[in-house]
Amino acid sequence: MMKKFLYIAAFFGALAGCRAIDDAELIDVREFAASKEELIVADGGGISSFKVYSNGKVSVGIVESGADWLELSSAASFKGDGDVEVLVSPNGGSIRMATIRLTLDGGASTLDVPVRQEGLPQYLVCREPYCIVDGRSDVQQTFTVVTNVPEEQISCDVEYLGLYKGWISEVSFSSGTLAIKALANESDVCRRARCLLKYTDNWGRDSSLELFVTQTDRDGTVGKSAGITLIKALGSSEGTLIQDDFTLDGIIVSDCTSPNMALNPSVCNTGDKFMADTTFARRVAYLEAADGSWGLRLIFNDEADNALRFGTAVSLSLYGLTAIRESNPQRFTLSGVSGWNICSSSPGAVVPEKQRSLSGLTPEDVYTYVTLEDMEFAFKKGTYADVMEDFAIQPPGSAGSGSKGSLLDGWASLLVDASGAGIYAPVNMLCPWRRTGGGVPQGAGQVRGILVHEDMPRLGNAGTYQIRVLDESGFDMGSEESTLHEHAVWINSYANRSNYSAVNSRYAYNKLATVIPSNDLLEAGKSLANGEMISENVTYPDSKSDAPYTTANCYNRLTADNDGVSSDYVGIGDIMMTRDFYRWNSDGEVEGYNGFVFTFRPAEVEASHWEFAFEFAGGYNSAGTARSWPAHWCLECSTDGGDSWTLVPEAATGAPYVHMRGLPWVRTFLNGQWYQTPSQAGMGFSQHSYVLPPEVAGKEQAMLRLRPYDKTIVSLPLLWDDDIEVSEIDYTTGIDVRVRFGFIYIRYR
């Protein structure tokens, strides 16, 4: 709030340096300010007000003579400080704006305060913004535009690409139709133009709609028809610029309105802030052959040029585009796309039906729309993007965004099929349906989306393929029952830490509560649960300070009944691993890998196969605990009491080990160095699943060991985007290591 004495003090402070003050030279200091720069009023109307600070007489008026929806309900003039109050009528139409003008002392100074009332936004939409016209004769062409903007507010500019200009002779807009007249093309090259419909909305914001026209040459052709064979021949890892006028036809299987079309890559902003390029997902489209035999990724230069909806047949000009070939798996991208490259578009095309199993996926399926059968979520507690949201989606400029980050990129849930094979389903943080309050589907069924390959350094190894749904309806398995049967379940829950401590003293301090079977079964005489978990090389004493334990500093788990960004802790903590967890000698050599051992009894159940799944992360929101833990973890299985162990590959990747990622943390000053969350730190628990060897079936006892795979450890980078897996275990490391588990399952089918 401004006060008069501040102005007076500032004025006389400025005069203090003068050698003499002449009263005749004193300036008339005027105070004149409003407490609000603008008023935003809901469409329901109501009373709104603001305060005015002055040392003179203030007159209040409404500038627009036709703004009958806005009425001044306070005094039209006042002396000194005063309040301005207006009554706003309900608005059932478009957004609207009027201006309150404040005049000081009859015109010595004026101040305008806009009043903006919410309502229906104004829009210009064209479902077919690209067209081809025949250049062999003069042609009249029309575009159908859906709009609620008055015609008198809309103007049209025509821009031309290349040397040929002026060949659009007439342009008119009336009753939602833009009509143009194109003169015949007497040249042997195609001509291109852009019609730009522009208007200023009722809040004073400039908006536009781009419509693109491609004219054939004098023979009626638009370049030479090309197929995927040409793209494969031209594509290179460095990118090859296409300088011939080729065209490529296909069907769009993405949607420009979906924010989930690609991973928004993390980038380092200036200084100590970091965020993601949130335009990238909207600049990506996917083009598939009409017969489904191939798919391409298109990257637009500008998200505004991508107006392509799902099921739109397009003809694409390849001139000026860059063909990129990538490997493992082989896939192709056309970059540098703009609206000029879309020769024509027609909605309503039939997208090919491609039903696939995970075992049947091939590189030819990449960037095509597929349906995966018999799929379900491996972890059914939580949301589509189960992350620590207050660290993940801080918008730039918000409170704390410089310290907590503005990551805004995606996370991935794990899907498994009836055989136990897995695939990750990334969901971007800008998807409003990433958390709906209902949780993920509980059953098995179909997943429909675009098969992609993306590097997800925050997750670790995301496998050869991932599937991206256009929206939540792509997960179509909510009505079916799960094919997974839970045999043993652990949850690292601080609230439930003592469930089994009375039965099995080894649970007293590791606090991984076994959920199955229930306490009723234990009380009926069963001495142990279906499975039990211990830590190797640790003797459990009476005091938890000397053993692995879970603290009350719990991870912010996003559960099905939590539909907003919340800072409430709901009971998933961390296990403190002391230096005895993995051992090495004085020369820094590891003497033995030690891990978490799970024992269970398969003989009690008839099963086609067994699966093991867990989710974990390292550290918590502190850079001091986000280093010096084993970076690579593996699963081993034993059926002979631990005498021999078999390495089990991860189901989604086939890799021998998985990456443990650290959770994001607040900006930290550590050992004389400022640290930000690195680009490879995770945003939540990473999910992993394994199909156990067939010899497990029928055994009286089987054992699983989750342990460090090698000597590689996580270390903090000096630069934000450096690799965080560059060091090996150091004997002098004195930092306690923290591992956080979420749910741990032993299941069968």
Overview of this protein structure:
The structure is a single chain. This protein has four domains: 28-117, Immunoglobulin-like (Sandwich), CATH 2.60.40; 124-215, Immunoglobulin-like, CATH 2.60.40.10; 355-476, OB fold (Dihydrolipoamide Acetyltransferase, E2P) (Beta Barrel), CATH 2.40.50; 485-748, no CATH class. It contains six helices and 54 strands. Strands 19, 20, 21, 24, 25, 26, 27, 28 and 29 form a nine-stranded mixed β-sheet that branches. Strands 30, 31, 32, 33, 34, 35 and 36 form a seven-stranded mixed β-sheet that branches. The relative contact order is 0.08.
Rg, Å, rounded: 33 Å
Distance between the terminal alpha carbons, to the nearest Å? 67 Å
What can be said about the biggest beta sheet? 9 strands, mixed
Helix content: under 10%
Give the overall form.
globular
Low-confidence stretches: 1-21, 396-405, 493-529, 534-576
Q: Could you tell me the strand content as a percent range?
A: 35-45%
Which structural class fits the helix and strand makeup? Answer: mainly beta
Would you report the number of β strands? 54
Number of domains: 4
Please tell me the overall pLDDT.
80
User: What oligomeric state best describes the polypeptide chains here?
Assistant: single chain
Q: Number of helical runs?
A: 6
